[in-house]
Write a structure and sequence with these properties.
Chain lengths: 459, 459
């Protein structure tokens, strides 16, 4: 599939170079805007406006939305005012707002100057809402109906107004002052048995809506929970201000999952895709956690120094430190990541902390015992007998395995408690993942190990 | 929001206990099926059928779909054949197939016996497709039109057939033998200027479709890329067999992100949500990687043993081992997780390996140098001057920081290369994440450290 796409891409580029514009255009019109946008990424700068001008008006606008910000900027800078107007007229308001957000100030000024007044004011409205709020991802273009309309009148209104609306399939019934009072779907309207039925008799009134300030992550959850096509956005007085559509919710779901994954791995969330990020941006996102975790490893250093005597007396003990810390870190991050994901999918609430703790404790004991038994055998048969390491006595083996078992239990308890605590403190639980847990567990596992060594080996 | 829900929940349970069925029913009918299903989770076993029977037929079926498998099973076992038939008649085929998949054999037998013949054969067809394929998540209920129909005829057909279809908004135009030849949306039909226009004149023919065997992850990507409401599923001869709808694609996106996150943290993907998983299931998903990684830490043990002499001579060196391994592990997993996520979002392909390597190398050098400089100062001012540790000489400090810098570079290179290699070998790159990378980087960082120590400190 991907390979086939590359062949098409090469062929189209060749046509562009050979100036076979008519043929090129005939092929482009059969393609999907997302795929055309992907083509642009491999063009030279001067080829971009050339190919863009081959597209029919509507397809050009749809392709424009799917392009990367730097290509959009390049095109806008090259557009005449007229061309810019034409593209803007075809855009949905929320897409236009997204584009405006990515552009430098002088380009934004030109866009707003050339947008028609209604769009200009809508863009300004959307941009005023805080980032990651429902207001910032909504569109103000939806179909509104009045409760006293009949089915026939409603269908007529949709036919008249529908062309500019992002979705016509869910229509919102509003009363005085745009107060949201119900919804009807086009399916209900089409399947209605009597064309004269008033909308008020058939609309759904047990509505689920969000406010402009609702977090976009919560909005995305509601989509996956309720399977909506669109969700109404209201202000503090239940007045309709816009809708969020399922495709934007999908983007948010993907974005939020990526953000969680990045934070779980000790990175700041990135604004751009990997290939578009500069080396310095990657550095800026990665260095803070690395620095913090490196400095906090001072504690493990102090513990090692404190038990220097024990280590010097039984140098064989040091060989197992990496294994102990590694297993502890892995056990802890398994628990923390599971809890973080469940919290972020809304399957788990803070009040479940007792259940989580009890579940993790039993799982930890099972894992700890299983690992300790295998480890005991491994050390004895491989390290002691096979590699003939006489420093590894039965007692050393015992100390290592006891420490391993306790470390796993401690790690899993810490791993599940910290994200729950973060949730209770209204912090993002994703911060409490692998790197953070590992650093804490590293210190705890060393403590456990040396305490066992001290008491059982008399070092 | 969540708290408000709990208050409602308590009030409704009280009504059930007090046998105020009429009031309870009046409230339930205003609620969303997903929310009603959530109510059932906290009911006692004998209350479940009681409350379920209060729901009107259609709402009962919608709620049933949203319930957990164990509650569904409980209800089915309590249903009379007639009740079961009524619920089944209201279900969409893909939901029915999902339920059948979760039930034990004797329950499945009863379901298939009571389903009408068309549904029975559709369920059987869906269940035959491999797990995680487009065939297994599709529904066979869609609206099909013929190319010679007019707009008016098409709308009439939708009005007649629509009630049982999962979506009516995208209709598929099929030719002889159900061959897929185009699509029209209800929006196009409603906005068409002339009711007599033949469908063949207005249908989209540059179709994007998947086959029954396409992986569900790829299907979900196509939804988020193209913003489809539904995607047609065809067989090897381009004959229409079903559609996947956006809500199922959303579920797949969430599922696949969870699976990636679990694999990235060294766990086998779970089938059930965390709270529904038994302790033994959690154990089974977590122990394989823990065991494997513990045993593979034998290598780090061997390296430690090999350099035992060096450690004994300069015992201060051991204090920095946890910090070195920790920073190496974190640096490596930052790179691997970034690459894995980009691969799984389709932003990165194997052919980009050169770009990735060059980007990571430069980022690694920036991170490595920054960390080494800060670490050098920290060791000197805190460990040496503040804690007055005389064993930490300027030379020891230098060895630690050089090793740190090289470790970070090595870790980031390993971290980006392994997932790319996995991709090339058609393995799941998510396996090559933190735990796996850490184990490899642990060994490499020790080697680097001891080699620097040997050559610069003459130990």
């Amino acid at each position: 599939m991907a390979e086939r796409f590359e062949i098409v891409q090469k062929a189209l580029q060749k046509m562009l170079e050979d100036k076979k514009y008519a043929t090129l255009r005939d092929i482009l019109v059969t393609m999907n805007p997302s795929d055309i946008a992907a083509l642009f990424q491999d063009l030279e700068e001067k080829q971009i406006p050339l190919m863009f001008r081959l597209l029919p008006k509507e397809q050009a606008a749809e392709t424009f939305v799917e392009m990367e910000p730097d290509e959009q900027e390049l095109l806008i800078r090259g557009f005449s005012d007229n061309e810019l107007k034409e593209v803007l007229d075809e855009l949905y308001v929320d897409d236009a707002a997204d584009i405006v957000e990515e552009m430098p100030a002088n380009v934004v000024k030109r866009i707003l100057k050339n947008a028609d007044p209604v769009m200009r004011s809508s863009i300004n409205q959307i941009l005023r809402y805080p980032e990651n709020s429902a207001g910032s991802i909504m569109t103000t273009e939806y179909v509104s109906l009045r409760p006293d309309m009949t089915v026939e009148e409603a269908i007529l209104r949709i036919r008249r107004q529908g062309v500019d609306k992002e979705t016509i399939y869910t229509c919102y019934v509003t009363g005085k002052d745009r107060t949201l009072i119900g919804l009807v779907t086009v399916k209900d309207l089409l399947l209605a048995e009597d064309d004269e039925t008033p909308i008020s008799d058939m609309m759904l009134t047990n509505l689920i809506s969000v406010t402009t300030r609702t977090d976009q992550e919560e909005v995305a959850h509601m989509f996956s929970k309720y399977n909506f096509l669109a969700l109404p956005v209201v202000d503090g007085e239940n007045r309709m201000v816009g809708i969020v559509t399922f495709d934007d919710a999908m983007d948010v779901m993907e974005e939020e999952a990526t953000e969680d994954i990045e934070m779980m791995s000790g990175m700041l969330p990135s604004e751009k895709s990997y290939l578009k990020s500069s080396v310095f941006e990657l550095f800026k996102n990665r260095i803070p956690w690395l620095m913090l975790l490196m400095v906090s490893a001072t504690f493990t250093g102090l513990i090692m120094t404190a038990f220097e005597g024990a280590l010097a007396a039984q140098i064989a003990l040091s060989a197992f430190i990496p294994m102990l810390m590694g297993t502890g870190g892995n056990s802890g991050s398994q628990s923390s990541v599971t809890v973080i994901r469940s919290l972020s999918l809304g399957e788990l609430k803070f009040r479940d902390i007792g259940i989580v703790l009890w579940k993790e404790l039993r799982t930890a004991i099972l894992c700890g015992v299983a690992l300790a038994v295998v480890c005991f055998a491994k050390i004895w048969f491989i390290d002691h007998l096979l590699f003939q390491n006489d420093a590894i006595t039965l007692m050393v083996d015992l100390v290592v395995c006891l420490a391993l078992c306790v470390t796993v239990v401690v790690a899993k308890i810490v791993g599940c408690l910290l994200p729950m605590a973060a949730k209770a403190l209204k912090l993002d639980p994703a911060v409490m993942a692998s790197p953070f847990i590992s650093t804490i567990v590293d210190a705890l596992s060393l403590l456990v190990y040396f305490l066992f060594a001290k008491s059982l080996l008399n070092v």
